[in-house]
UniProtKB/TrEMBL annotation:
Species of provenance: Paramarasmius palmivorus
Membrane association type: Multi-pass membrane protein
Cellular component, GO annotation: plasma membrane
Domain FAD-binding FR-type: 234-405
GO terms of biological process kind: copper ion import; intracellular iron ion homeostasis; iron ion transport
InterPro entries hit by this protein: FAD-bd_8, FAD-bd_FR_type, Fe3_Rdtase_TM_dom, Fe_red_NAD-bd_6, Ferric/Cupric_Reductase, FNR_nucleotide-bd, Riboflavin_synthase-like_b-brl
Catalytic reaction annotation: 2 a Fe(II)-siderophore + NADP(+) + H(+) = 2 a Fe(III)-siderophore + NADPH
Family, as annotated: Belongs to the ferric reductase (FRE) family.
Highest taxon, organism lineage: Eukaryota
Classification of source organism: Eukaryota, Fungi, Dikarya, Basidiomycota, Agaricomycotina
Spans traversing the lipid bilayer: 36-55, 90-113, 133-152, 172-193, 219-237, 279-299
Region (Disordered), start-end ranges: 1-26
Name of this chain's protein: ferric-chelate reductase (NADPH)
Location within or outside the cell: Cell membrane
Amino acid sequence: MSTNTSATESHSAHDHGSSPEMAADPYEESPKYAKGVLYFLCGTLALFIIGRWIVAIRNQRRFSQSALKSGIYRKGIAISRYLSSKQQRIFGVHFPVLGSGLLILAFFVFLMAWAFSVHPYYWSSWDVQSPPLAIRTGLMTIGMYPFILILASKWNFVTLLTGHSYEKLQVFHQFLGHIFFLFGMFHSFPYVVQGMSEVKPGWEPMTKIEYSIFVTKKVYYWSGFAMLGFLVILCWLSLSPIRNRYYETFKIIHHLCSLTFLGLFFVHCNSKLDSNDWLWSTVVVYSLSVAFRFAWMLISNSGGTPKASFELMPAGMVKLRIKCNPNEKWGPGQHYFLNFKSVLPLQSHPFTIANLPSPEKNELVVLIRQAHGVTKALAQHLEGKDPNTTVLVFIDGPFGGIGQDLSIYEHALLIAGGTGVTFIMPVLQDLLAKTRQKDCVCRSIQVLWSVREEDSISWMIAELENAVKEAPSSALTVKIHVTGAAASKNDDDSEKEKVPQAGAALSYPWYGRADVRAVVSAAAADSRTLGVAACGPETLLYDVRNAVADVEKDIVFGKAKCTERSTPGNDSADYDFSSIYINPVLSIVGTRATGQSPIEKLWFKLDTVDPFADDMLRAA
């Protein structure tokens, strides 16, 4: 944060040759701390880029068979996937997957070790210059700041280079923000300690803080205190309980505080130690990302504001069909931010697209469940209107998506909870289209869908029935579980009341919760290569993640026959528990009980948006 010096500091005071203690940590060399932080973050980014290249090369079958069959290689892949899947839940709080947690911890330990291993923390005289500990930690926050802002933007160079969409990067945006806040405190405390403990000679009893604020009226004190106040708002009001309860208010406050904080940052640093170069570079990069996003929005809406027709469905669902530009393209599991101009013109919310583009009739299909916020306002707006009524919708996207072609695996397991099925459906449609191709590796697809109420099955039953009819023989099996109050009397009793035909391509309803861990384990045991995609409630995703991690651990210790795959489609291929994609979003479409869309809720929960998780995060 602050890189300023007091009014009594002179150019000669910063000469590290002026005293032995100043030579230990020269003031004019302090920008090295900002550069060190930047190098660490860029190095981490480079690892993700290299990982993306490795996956791309692997998927294109460019590795030699000997390399793929190497035990070291296969176990290395299994370890990386274990790190990307294993998740802890402590006192009901879901923490990031193990890999992301270790990466964040490594960054924090690096900063702490560097900041506090260098001495001195304070100069022997208060009127020499700012405390070196304050300067070090302040420059470290400057090094973090560009990444914090960039990771918050929808379009950013990190996404461009790594292939991880913005929602997957939010976990790093959040934790970097909290580390920034902590180091902002480390930056401020030395000024307070030094300022309160020493009195300026020759004056009435007056601390350095009082002297700087009331006599010399230095901006770095009042601006620093103001910045800390805004940091408290930015960080702590972003926690899930507050954010979810007052989301729309929070969003406005968060944006206003961010802009104000940036302005105060310029004032506070006052061009010291090349700080303006860092801040202006951050502004330019962030502005470019915003400009690119708006340019893309104009292209997507270039044919005029899209119009959406609506259809009321059972269980409080509304299906929207949005006519879009014929050239508009999106992939399986991607989402758009939608702005309903006639409902809430100043708000945009993310919704998953439940279909794939069509050359005959290009339209976005969105399923929305009435709850609160924008979905409640939309439902009220449509209530009593003629079904032929259209609604103006401004679209912004696409974002997110699966990020990996599941057709390169012999078996695909798609798991959905509730409205999470709308994320699974376009993935399923894409897989079925590819299975009709002779060179497609995927031979079988398994869908497991759990709903709370039996009426909810009607949302997608027609689409699922069509999928089963169109699928090659024995290529697709769909199983639907009902877990709500009517189905929870007793799992054993309910199974006796009505048991669907086991082994049928489409079987439902199965009453009671599905044993997700058993399903994943069985799929891993029966498959040579396996890709898993999941979307649904936190509890479901937690179970899937850890079921995946258990299999990966067995691979590492040689307890599982499935290992890293050989070339897809090769009859001599080894077994594989391949890339796992888990979507940590509460539901695919609609809103939660508090009225925000699921992806918005999870932005600031500890268990979400995790690029390390190799997750298939999508927005709702």
